[in-house]
Design the sequence.
């Protein structure tokens, strides 16, 4: 342990926190009609911090505060990703906030705080730090999902989210306590050492781990702990739905991947079948129920539950290969989902509607939005030459390589089912004619136009040429799974 | 400059994306964008060529290549890369020059066409795909480009899609070549299965040092040749090319004579080590080439539509090139490919100029046109003499190389066939030239006029190339000792050599071919009607193209469609109704049922979590 704490490594976190408080402060001095500028300041600020953070990616690995907090390529990768997602969501919110929400200052600042929480989750090196940052993220999301103050659905979503979230946090904390009782540590590396020594997981350790999985399962929205997701997705303001779907998932998996890789890997034979089962149930359940949805937000909620199943598959088959696959999939999934959500936000800002049937005739009302949504949904379904294909390919082949061929098979079936409901949306947009009186051309503001365009381009780029991203991710995984031999480092 | 070679296919690709997206807003820029990018590609080619000559002085250098990783998956790395060696340089030079000249020609030829922009867009995409095809250093990229040129060919043949024959011809071309492509794909996958790579150089190394068994080499060579048969319109997949003349004439000139159709020949040349190591595959190439050449040349003697004559002559020449390749004459085949590209481009552009100026396409309706369009006549004449194989035109040199190569590789019998093909080439070239330009001018052609300079200028350039291109065979400096030192198989460099006996024979045959045609179509001392009457049966068979189309139609109607209907019934009844819809309705019903679990009640959700936790713990404890 170094004698002094290297605070300079924490600059990105300090800057994000500082930016959040600056927004809170600025909010006092701006007249209400000028407050849109706060969104721009937050987004551009985040962009600067990203540019500032990227040079930190230099294969340096530091433990701060006696292993509580880690600064390494893995954490930095997720920090940059979190900030990028946060910045994108803020930009995507600007028109929405102006039209539907009040208190923009708090809105943007809380998003910034949640970005901070996400950054900390990726960097936590032990359970309590992880728990604290998880709670910070959750609190931010509770508030944000109830931000449409005059919308009863939004308030209902927020209340449900808080109550169930508190419940799950309780379980999670209890799980941590039991694990501490059993192992005498909450530090990931020491947990691994303990598991190496005492192979068997039983008694309070078993209960503790199960509780931990339950709590984290809630945050990820894995079946059967997913039930909050559709209600919250539907009730929350649209950009926040996007944020929950993408950001909270990225952060949760950043934490889970590090926890399982650094802390629980020695006992993989004892938990992998459980996670694999959870993955299978989650992907099948999410995708099958999505079939029956009529609201686009609910459909996407279930579809993202299904995606969690795919991601869990990467945890279940934990290896260098599969954690690369998992991270590639997370990035592709984020870009794709943001593209869909931004397009839907643009649609909603103009029409105020969110049923799938309202998308009828969109191809003639706004060819751009229709094309963007179609490309993104096809990417989610995993069609070739789009991000979803490449990332699923990596993920599935990793699972197959780790003797989870049956799970890869289930994942294929689930993907196939998902194609059906994605195509239903495409059919609405391209084949069904627009309803009478609702066939005006949709005006898309330049900002959203650009955001959707950028996301779609990323989706296509990852699909065509994933190599640079994969190389970046291989560096990041090398930190949490240093044992992987050189040949396993490349995606075989 | 070598590493800038990627610009060559990239430039027209950029033009395509620009025209396809923004072209509609900037119609006046389409020709400039397409031609400008093509010109850049052409200039880059010259720098690359100069670089090649400055670097290849080192004796061990046989090819330059560079690539970057595209996807790593399943034990192999897929790359995008290009190889620069004499074969690809010949092809790049031909394609960029022909595409550039023909695009300039198109400015004037298509200027009244409302979908001018779209034409240039597809034209550019075609050029990009073709250049990627010839530069590809691995079979996967080659296959992608191969299919892309197929698509472009389809779009260009069917450019006038509101005309039924054009639409039909486009469909026919696409489907027919697809049959060959299946063979190509299977061949590529077979090689991938046996070698684990798509890299050409790695595969060739394995072929050389026995890493692949003889049987696999032969099988792959034959399968790849199937692709070549489709693309280069060899028997029995030749039927699409004559119909492809429904496309605009610049397309016929570029795609269906000078460049795309030689992709098959290029494939055989590129995969030459395979044919060197498999005598039976090489023999098959020779036989198919010779058979197609003779058969098509005979048809070219009787059809009367000018573009169709040229189409059958293209078939002949493609067969001729494969004939040479199959006999081991890589140099000869590639040289004939190059010279044929320029000569045939002139002939097609000339034919376009003729029908543009006179409104006629049937040679029986023409005659004496040289009075109205003298420049076209001279240029067309150069093309005809070149392909007819009269010295000192380019075609003489290349034809002679082919005949010599066939003699060296296959002996007397095949050489006789090659000489016969040479004679028939002279005969039909003489026929088309004399019938169109000499003789009496018909009154309905009084209004015929010479084409604009924009159309004539590229033709003139190609004419010079056809006129002097043959001298590329000869040695000039230490840096360039003739085509045989540039393109050669293995280490076997060789200078251009005339076998005097063959040369005299082939010149005599070529000249007599032209004289016979002159007697028949100008002087009139040789009457064609009695000959046609005497051999009316043969004539009918030839006019009907050996009834191959009819046979295919019958097979499609009576066999393929009947079988298809049975499959369709099976698909409807079993797969669709029971299999798909059955499973589908089970899944959707399940989905609807499970939706009820989502009650919206908070305590249900919390209960769900507890049950989930208990289930997990129990499952874990039990396991």
Sequence:
């Amino acid at each position: 342990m170094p004698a002094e704490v290297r605070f300079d490594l924490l600059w990105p976190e300090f800057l994000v926190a500082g930016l959040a408080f600056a927004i809170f402060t600025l909010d006092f001095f701006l007249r209400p009609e000028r407050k849109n500028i706060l969104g721009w300041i937050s987004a551009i600020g985040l962009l600067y911090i990203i540019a500032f953070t990227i040079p930190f990616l230099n294969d340096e690995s530091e433990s701060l505060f006696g292993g509580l907090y880690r600064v390494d390529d893995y954490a930095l990768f997720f920090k940059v990703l979190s900030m990028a997602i946060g910045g994108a969501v803020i930009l995507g919110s600007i028109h929405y906030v102006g039209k539907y929400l009040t208190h923009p200052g708090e809105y943007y600042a809380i998003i910034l705080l949640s970005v901070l929480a996400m950054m900390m989750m990726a960097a936590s090196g032990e359970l309590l730090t992880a728990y604290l940052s998880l709670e910070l993220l959750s609190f931010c999301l509770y508030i944000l999902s109830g931000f449409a103050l005059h919308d009863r659905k939004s308030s209902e979503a927020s209340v449900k989210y808080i109550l169930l979230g508190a419940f799950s946090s309780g379980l999670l904390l209890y799980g941590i306590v039991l694990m501490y009782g059993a192992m005498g540590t909450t530090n990931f590396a020491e947990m691994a050492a303990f598991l190496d020594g005492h192979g068997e997981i039983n008694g309070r350790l078993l209960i503790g781990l199960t509780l931990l999985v339950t709590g984290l399962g809630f945050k990820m929205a894995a079946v059967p702990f997913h039930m909050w997701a559709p209600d919250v997705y539907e009730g929350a303001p649209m950009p926040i739905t996007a944020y929950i779907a993408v950001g909270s998932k990225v952060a949760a998996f950043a934490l889970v991947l590090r926890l399982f890789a650094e802390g629980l890997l020695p006992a993989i034979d004892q938990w992998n079948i459980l996670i694999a089962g959870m993955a299978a149930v989650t992907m099948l359940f999410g995708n099958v129920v999505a079939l029956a949805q009529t609201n686009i937000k609910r459909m996407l909620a279930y579809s993202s539950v299904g995606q969690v199943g795919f991601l869990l598959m990467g945890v279940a088959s934990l290896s260098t290969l599969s954690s690369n696959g998992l991270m590639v999939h997370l990035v592709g999934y984020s870009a794709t989902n943001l593209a869909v959500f931004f397009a839907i936000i643009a649609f909603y800002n103009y029409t105020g509607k969110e049923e799938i049937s309202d998308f009828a005739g969109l191809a003639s009302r706004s060819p751009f939005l229709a094309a963007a949504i179609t490309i993104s949904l096809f990417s989610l379904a995993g069609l070739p030459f789009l991000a979803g294909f490449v990332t699923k390919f990596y993920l599935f082949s990793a699972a197959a390589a780790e003797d989870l061929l049956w799970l890869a098979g289930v994942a294929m079936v689930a993907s196939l089912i998902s194609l059906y409901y994605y195509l239903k949306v495409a059919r609405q947009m391209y084949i069904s004619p627009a309803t009478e009186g609702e066939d005006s051309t949709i005006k898309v503001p330049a900002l959203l136009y650009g955001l959707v365009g950028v996301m779609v381009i990323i989706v296509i780029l990852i699909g065509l040429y994933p190599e640079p991203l994969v190389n970046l991710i291989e560096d990041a995984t090398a930190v949490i799974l240093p044992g992987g031999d050189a040949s396993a480092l490349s995606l075989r | 400059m070598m590493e800038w070679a990627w610009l060559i296919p990239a430039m027209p690709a950029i033009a395509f994306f620009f025209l396809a997206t923004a072209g509609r807003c900037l119609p006046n820029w389409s020709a400039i964008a397409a031609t400008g990018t093509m010109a850049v590609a052409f200039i880059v080619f010259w720098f690359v060529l100069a670089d090649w000559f400055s670097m290849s002085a080192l004796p061990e250098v046989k090819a330059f290549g560079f690539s970057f990783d595209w996807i790593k998956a399943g034990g192999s790395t897929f790359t995008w890369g290009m190889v620069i060696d004499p074969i690809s340089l010949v092809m790049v030079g031909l394609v960029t020059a022909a595409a550039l000249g023909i695009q300039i020609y198109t400015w004037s030829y298509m200027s009244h066409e409302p979908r001018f922009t779209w034409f240039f867009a597809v034209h550019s995409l075609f050029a990009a795909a073709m250049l990627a095809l010839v530069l590809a250093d691995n079979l996967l990229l080659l296959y992608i480009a191969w299919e892309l040129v197929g698509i472009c060919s389809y779009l260009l043949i069917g450019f006038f899609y509101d005309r039924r024959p054009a639409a039909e011809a486009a469909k026919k071309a696409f489907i027919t070549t697809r049959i060959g492509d299946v063979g190509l794909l299977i061949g590529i996958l077979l090689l991938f299965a046996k070698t684990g790579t798509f890299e050409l150089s790695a595969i060739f190394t394995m072929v050389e040092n026995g890493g692949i068994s003889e049987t696999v080499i032969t099988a792959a060579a034959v399968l790849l040749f199937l692709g070549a048969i489709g693309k280069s319109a060899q028997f029995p997949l030749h039927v699409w090319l004559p119909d492809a003349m429904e496309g605009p004439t610049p397309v016929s000139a570029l795609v269906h004579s000078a460049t795309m159709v030689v992709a098959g020949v290029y494939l055989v040349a590129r995969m030459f080590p395979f044919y060197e190591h498999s005598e039976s595959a090489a023999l098959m190439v020779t036989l198919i080439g010779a058979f197609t050449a003779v058969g098509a040349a005979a048809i070219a003697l009787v059809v009367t539509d000018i573009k169709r004559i040229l189409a059958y002559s293209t078939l002949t020449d493609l067969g001729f090139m494969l004939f040479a390749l199959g006999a081991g004459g890589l140099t000869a085949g590639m040289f004939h490919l190059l010279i044929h590209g320029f000569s045939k481009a002139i002939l097609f552009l000339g034919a376009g100029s003729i029908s543009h100026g006179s409104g006629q396409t049937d040679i029986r309706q023409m005659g004496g046109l040289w009075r109205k369009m003298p420049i076209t006549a001279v240029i067309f004449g150069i093309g005809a003499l070149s392909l007819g194989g009269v010295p000192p035109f380019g075609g003489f040199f290349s034809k002679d190389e082919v005949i010599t190569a066939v003699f060296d590789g296959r002996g007397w019998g095949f050489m006789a066939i090659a000489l016969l093909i040479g004679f028939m080439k002279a005969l039909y070239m003489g026929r088309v030239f004399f019938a169109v330009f000499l003789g009496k001018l018909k009154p309905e052609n009084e209004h015929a006029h010479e084409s604009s300079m924009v159309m004539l200028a590229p033709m003139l350039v190609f004419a010079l190339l056809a006129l002097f291109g043959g001298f590329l065979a000869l040695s000039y400096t230490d840096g360039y000792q003739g085509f045989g030192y540039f393109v050669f198989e293995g280490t076997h460099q060789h200078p251009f050599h005339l076998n005097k006996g063959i040369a005299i024979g082939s010149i005599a045959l070529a000249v007599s071919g032209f004289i016979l045609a002159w007697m028949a179509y100008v002087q009139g001392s040789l009457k064609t009607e009695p000959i046609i009457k005497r051999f009316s049966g043969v004539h009918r068979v030839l006019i009907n193209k050996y009834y191959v189309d009819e046979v295919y139609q019958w097979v499609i109607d009576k066999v393929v469609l009947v079988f298809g209907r049975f499959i369709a019934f099976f698909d409807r009844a079993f797969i669709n109704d029971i299999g798909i819809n059955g499973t589908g309705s089970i899944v959707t019903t399940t989905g609807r049922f499970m939706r009820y679990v989502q009650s919206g009640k908070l305590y249900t959700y919390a209960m769900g979590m507890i049950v989930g936790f208990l289930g997990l713990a129990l499952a874990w404890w039990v396991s």
